[in-house]
Amino acid sequence: MFFPLKFLQNHPVYRVHEIPESFLRMSIDATTFGSHLVPDWFQNGFEQSPKLRGKMQAVYDELSGHDRQYREAFYAAFLYDNEIQLLCDDVSLSPALKQPRFDSLHGCLHALMTHLYTSTLGTKSLVDALGGADMLDHYRQFIQRNGDSYVCPFCGLSHFRDPSDGRRESYDHWLFKKYYPAAAVNFRNLVPMCAECNESPNKGENDILYGDRQRRTRRRALFPYANCHGVDLVVSCVHPPSIVNLNGEWHVAVSARDESETGQTDTWKSVFNIQSRLAHHIALHQRVWFTEFLIERDLARATYDVTTVRSALSEHSDRLSLKLASHIQDGGFIKAAFFEFCTSNADDAVLMALGEIASSDVIRGRARMAEVAAG
C-alpha cells in the first residue's frame, strides 16, 4: 500500500453492526423470535422489513436447534471474526466461523449479513433511525478525514470520486463477505477503493488472509487503517520504445520500506497485481511524460542531445519527487519513479529512444499547428 488510510471515528452508520451483534447475543437465551432481539433504536426498522426478518428468522431457527453452549460459542466466533486487524497481523490465527461445526449456519448467516449490507444500509428506515446519516455522508467525511486525498492508496494510479457531486466509490470488504460474513457491516472491514482495484482480476473476491485457493496457507496482510511505512519503486527498461513498439517494455520492482512489513507488502502486491499494473501504466504514459518534459525544458529539437537532457533530468526528477510522490495526483508515485530511473539508471540508448520518439511527436505537432495557422 502506498500510504495508510485514517479511520473515521464515530460515524452514525457504524451502528448498523449493532443489529447482528445484538441479535446473536440476545438469541443465546431467547425463547421466542421478535423485535426484542434487535437494538431499541432499530425495532421500527425491523418491523418494516419483512425480508430482513425472514433472514433473521432463518438464523434464529438454526441456532434454536443447538444447545446454549453452541449458541454462546457461535456468538463468540462472530465477535472474533470481527477482529480484522488481529487476523491480518497474526498468521497463527484462523477465522473462528471457518470451523466445521458452524457449517450449517454459514449459508443463512451469509444471507443475513449480505442483506444488511446490500439492502438495509440504504433503506429510509435505517437512515431515519440514524438521524439522516448514510453512506455518502460517511464517504464525504472519510475523504475529509484523509486530508481531501483522492488518490487510491492501493494502486496509486486511480482517482477517487469527488463526493460533492453526490457520488462515491464502492466500499471493498477487506475480508471478503463470502468467506467472512460476520464482518459484512463492520466498517473497520469496509474501505473505499477505486473500481480497478476492487474488481477482478485484482482484489475482487480474493481472500486476503490465504495464499491458496484451498484457503489453507495463511499469510500476513496489511490492515488499511493501520500505520505503514509505504513502499519503494524501482523502474527498469526491458526493451526501449521504438518505431515498431512505441510503448516499450518495462519492469517495476516494489519493496517495503520497512523490512518488518515485507510479508504484508508481498500479499498486497500479489492480490492487487501491483507490479504488472505499474509497468503497464509506464508503457502507456511514458511517451506523454517525456514529451511534456522536453517541451517544458525546451529540449524538443530535430537534433536530440542526450548530454543536455541528462543534466535537465536531475532537476526535473527532484521536483517530481516532491510534487508527484504524494497523495494529490493519481499516477504520481510511478511517474516520479520513472523519472528517477531516467535520471539515475537509464543508459544512453534508452534516453535516446525516449527522446527521439518524443521529439518527433513535438516536431510533428508544431508542423500541424503551423499548417492550421497558415490556413
Largest sheet: 2 strands, antiparallel
What is the overall pLDDT average? 92
- Report the end-to-end length measured between terminal Cα atoms: 52 Å
Low-confidence stretches: none
- Count the beta strands: 4
Task: List descriptors.
single chain; mainly alpha; 2 domains; elongated
How are the SSEs placed, and which strands pair?
Blueprint (H helix, E strand, L loop, with lengths): L17 H10 L15 H5 L2 H15 L3 H13 L3 H6 L13 H16 L5 H6 L5 H11 L25 E3 L16 E3 L2 H4 L32 E9 L9 E8 L5 H11 L1 H23 L9 H18 L8 H13 L3 H27 L1
Antiparallel strand pairs: 1-2, 3-4
Helix pairs in contact: 1-4, 3-6, 11-14, 12-13
Written account of the structure:
47% of the residues lie in helices and 6% in strands. It is mostly helical. It has two domains: 187 residues, no CATH class; 144 residues, no CATH class. α1 runs antiparallel to α4, α3 runs antiparallel to α6 and α11 packs across α14. The radius of gyration is 26 Å and the shape is elongated. The two termini are 52 Å apart. The model has no long low-confidence stretch (mean pLDDT 92).
